[in-house]
Structure formats: C-alpha cells, structure tokens
Amino acid sequence: QEVDHQQDHQQDHQHNHKDQQQQQQPFQQEVDQQHKDQQQQDHQQHKDHEQQQHKEYHQQQQQPFHHHHQQQQQHQQRRHQQQQQQTLQWRQDLEQQHEHQEQEEYHHQQQQQ
C-alpha cells in the first residue's frame, strides 16, 4: 500500500515537471529574441556614433590647423589662471581656519589653568 502510494507520487511529480519545461520553452525563445533585438540596436547605435565622430573629425580637419591650435592654447591658459586663483583662495581660507582653531585651543588651555 505504502509503496504504491510512492509510485503514484513520483508519476505525479514527473508530470508536473514536464509541464514546467513546456512552459519555460516559449519564454526562453522570447528572451533570446529580445536579446537579439537589443544587440541589433546596440550595433546600430554604435555605427551611428562612429559616423558622427567621423563627420566631426572632418570638420575639424578642414579648419586651418594653426587657427585651431591657437584657440586651444588660449583656452588652456584661461583655465590655468582660474585654477590658480581658486587654489590661492582655498589656501587662504584654510590658513584662516587654522589660525582660528589655534586661538580657540589657546583660550581653552588658559581656562583650564
């Protein structure tokens, strides 16, 4: 009696398993399809991007090289000056903060004595 029951149970189990496999199949195909679509899209975007870069490169090349170079130098110098100013400002701030802390600590020690 007990053994029969187990066999029934196994058959039931196998049957369920088959159903699950059949259900998974279409799902898997769908996922594959989505993946393919995605790859194609990526590929298309990549091509577009390359063409775009290519165009920009040509436009730059058509400008006289000298002109292009001068612009860059001016730009760099300007950026450099700004950075220096910022750094100076930053250092002054730091020093002020530091002095302030030292004064506070000094007062603190005085009070303790």
UniProtKB/TrEMBL annotation:
Spans annotated as Disordered: 1-113
Chain segments annotated as transmembrane: none
Residue spans of biased composition, Low complexity class: 21-31, 82-91
Protein name stated in the entry: Uncharacterized protein
Native organism taxonomy: Eukaryota, Sar, Stramenopiles, Ochrophyta, Dictyochophyceae
Compositionally biased region (Basic and acidic residues): 1-20, 32-58, 92-113
Comp. bias intervals (Basic residues): 65-81
